[in-house]
Amino acid sequence: MLEVLLIIVSIALIIVCLLQTGKTDGIVNALTGQSSNLFAQQKERGVDLVLTRITVGLGIAFFVIAILIKMAG
Questions:
Q1: pTM of the full structure
Q2: Transmembrane ranges (predicted)?
Q3: Is 33 helix (H, G, I), strand (E, B) or coil?
């Protein structure tokens, strides 16, 4: 039962990660020396905030389920 749940959480985690917007623009600007707002405080809003929270929740669930499977086996 836990194995099936782990597979479902894994697939959901992959999908949610792929739906998130890329944040590589700031990293590229920092490495190339271009001016950027990399270190400015930028808050996530709307869909980005929801996807980030779902990703964190699914990541925690993934590790908890994996540990439970290892302890049971």
A1: 0.74
A2: 50-69
A3: coil
